[in-house]
Each structure stands twice: as structure tokens, then as C-alpha cells.
Design a protein that fits this description.
The chain is α/β, with parallel strands linked by helices and about 425 residues long. It folds into two domains: about 5-225, Spore Coat Polysaccharide Biosynthesis Protein SpsA, Chain A; about 230-245 and about 255-415, 3 Solenoid (UDP N-Acetylglucosamine Acyltransferase, domain 1). It contains eight helices and 34 strands. Bound molecules: uridine-diphosphate-N-acetylglucosamine (UD1) and calcium ion.
Amino acid sequence: MKKEIAVIILAAGKSTRMKSELPKVLHPLCGRPMLGYVLDLVAGLKPKQVVAVLGHKHELVRKIIPKGAKIAIQKKLSGTAEAVKAGLSALKGFKGTVLVLYGDNPLLKKETLKKLLDYHLENNVDTTLLTAKLKKPFGYGRIMRDKYSSICGIVEEKDADEVQQDIKEINTGIMVFKKDSLEGNLKYIRPNNRKKEYYLTDIIEILAKNDYLVDGVKAEDAQEVLGINTRAELAKANSLMQKTINDKLMQDGVTILDPASTFINFGTKIGMDTVIYPFTVIERGVKIGKRCSVGPFAHLREDVSLGDNVRVGNFIEIVRAKIGAKTLVKHFSYLGDSSVGSSVNIGAGAVTANFDGLKKNHTVIKDNVNIGSDTVIVAPAKIGKFAVTGAGSVITKNVPEGVVVAGVPARILKKR
Ligand code: UD1
Ligand code: CA
């Protein structure tokens, strides 16, 4: 691909069908806003320019737009053609190829886009659409082809008659244009449809009728082009994205006993030979070392890192905590805001009481400590190396190195 490429990402729309106060493109998939995946994909193409078209609650959406990208505001949400117009206003002086992407297509793969762009450039056409064949095309614009089987237009679901609704080839929304052909013809689009909006899709009929070259490339994997409009589609996309994340981890040497019941967010790092048991939730940014075991029924939340050979068992919640190598937390515990050393044993039911009603407090547990079952550590507290807490102790102050404490509140019984 030698030619210069600019990308316009449409992300101005409301969340009407999601029935949500949060803009649709910020709804997360595996712990990350769906638009984030589209932005990553675009960055991977290394285009000359990127414009994100924002509108509804743009002050929220712009927070995730990278610095190198321009932002164009679509003031009136009057349809995808108007959104593209807003995007083009940020591309004055640019000559070349314009790729239009929708912010609600997070599963799209780079290879597919490359294929589309290569085809477009090699054949020197005015526009190339990415289409797909779906068994159930409901909700998508349908691709209309003439008797020579050339694309001659797109009809939206709401405006399609019964025959058109039977068409299985759909518009994925991903289109490439020669900039001039796009810019010069947007003005002919009229809001003659059920929604009274300016549809970008109408440009295809305009171009075809005026002898511009219109072509299409079919996406091989129909799931990749899923556009998310509803919560049900969000759930579907989430499970597809989860599968991609889990597959990649397994490829890298992590055992996931039951991928279907294992929820690992985007951006997690897990070392080789670690085993993840079923019904485990691992949130964004968690780091897990080599040869660990996690779960079943474990919940690792934000800012957690586990060293090598750590074992986190059932009914454990850990948040904002660093756990050293060879430490065991095996049965129903909560560790929050904690730094735990290596070779520590956290007995069954031990809990850090990190919240005093106003703020979160920190717990430090040094190497080789043995925390007895049902110990409650009222933070802030520090437990020195080789210390032992008796079953049921309530720790209310720092415990020195190498002592045994017990009781409520815990007192020193002896040196170890
Ligand atoms: C659109 C296509 C449809 C295609 C489908 C693929 C149109 C008219 N229809 O329908 O042919 O099959 O995507 O998923 O384009 N947006 C704006 N400004 C607006 C309206 C929308 O920026 O004024 C953005 C939205 O934020 C969204 C994208 O454009 O990211 C698509 O809009 P959406 O309403 O989801 O279009 P669909 O009905 O799904
Ligand atoms: Ca959509």
C-alpha cells in the first residue's frame, strides 16, 4: 500500500438502542471500551491521518482518543453522511484514500482491512465496500446488485421491502473511497428515508448511477464485522472477544480448563504453565507470573500482580495488591490494598479490613509470614517477617518480625 490513507472513525451517535446514558462506543468489551479496539486497529495501519467524529457526550469519548488523532465534532446527529462530512472538514489538504470505520465494529481484524485496502488500491476504483454474507441479516443495510452482479446501492433494513429483506449480503459499514469521489458526492444525499437521516450508504447508488467504479470485498468471517447496537449484541461481541483473548493465552502456554467460564479482561499478562480454573474473573491489567494456579471461583481485580508459583484458590478476592512468589491464598479470603511478600501462607478466611469508612488503608505482610485462619488485619498494619498470627486473631497494630500473636485484639504470645 503505497498511497496515503486517512481514516475517519464515526463515533458521534447516541446509545438509543442500547438504552444507556453511556455513549455506545464507550461500552466495554472484556473490560475495555469498544472504541479502544477500533483505535488500536487504526493505529496498526499507520495511516497518514486519523479523525474521530464525536458528538453525543463527546467530552467523555474524547478521553480515549489518542493524541495523534484529530477530533471533529458533529453538532447535529443527522446521520452517517453528515458525520463523514464533519470528518472530512478535518482533512483539508489531504489527497488520497479515505477509509471510513464505525466505532461500533470492535471485532474487525487488521488482515481484513488490509485486504480491503489492497483491493481498492490495486483496482483503482472509486469506492470499495466490505460486505458479508449473513444467515440472519436483520438490522443491517442490504447490498443491492444489478443484473451484471455489480453493486448498485444499499438499502437500509427499515426502508427495505420484503424482497430486499431477503438479501443475505450486508453492508458492514466499512468503506474505502477516493477522497474526491466521496467529497464531491456527499452533497447529493437526501434524507429520504424512514429515519429522515442523511445516510452515507446512499452515496453508493449515487456513485454507481454516475459511472464511478464501485466494488466490494467479502469478509470471510461474518462474526468479525458484527456491529453492536443492542445489549444482546454487546454480550455476543463480548464472548467472541473473550474467546480471542483466551485462545491467545492458551497459545502462549497458559492452561485454561474451561474457557467458557473464565473471564479474562483485555490487557492481562499471564505467565507460562499457569493454570486458571473455572469460574474465574481476571480484570484489566492484572499480571500473573509463571506456574501459578488461580481459582476456581477467584476474582482478581484491578492493579493485582502475582509472582511466580503463587496459588490463589477458591472464593478469593484480591484488589490493588502485590503478592510475592510461592505465596498461598487458598480458601475464601479478601486481600485489598496489600503488599504481600514471598512464601507467605494466608490461612482460610483471612481478611484485610482495608476500608475505615472514609479511606482505603494499606496492609504489608512480609516474607514467610503465616496468617492463621480467620485472621482479620485492620489496616493500616504491617506484619514482620516470619511472624505468625493465631486463628481468629484481630490485628490492630504492627506485628514485629518473628513473633506469634493471637487474640482479639491480637497480643504477642512468644517469639517464634
Ligand atoms: C449502519 C449502516 C448499515 C450497516 C451497519 C453495519 C448507515 C446509514 N447504515 O447502520 O448499512 O449495515 O451500520 O454495522 O450508515 N454515527 C455518527 N453520527 C450519526 C449517526 C451515526 O457518528 O449521525 C456513528 C455511530 O456512532 C456508529 C456509526 O456511525 O458508530 C453507525 O451508526 P449506527 O446508528 O450504529 O448505524 P446502523 O443502524 O448500525
Ligand atoms: Ca451500528
